[in-house]
Input
Amino acid sequence: MASTFFLIAIGFVIGLGGWALFLWAVRSGQFDDAEAPKYRMLDDDDEQFHSLPADKTRKSSRR
Output
């Protein structure tokens, strides 16, 4: 019987911890814009390399 109360207490503590982490994520803005990341991956990042001088593009391509 004591083990049942112990498991209930552990489950309650883990549940409160998960709820606290969820509230922290909401308050810190983790769920503010759920739509932007799927469109951000489609942006063309090649434009930044066309505007750099030739010597800087050679250095970045060596990596």
Notes: The chain has four helices and no strands. The chain has a mean pLDDT of 81. The helical segments are 2-27, 36-40, 47-50, 54-61. The first helix runs from residue 2 to 27.
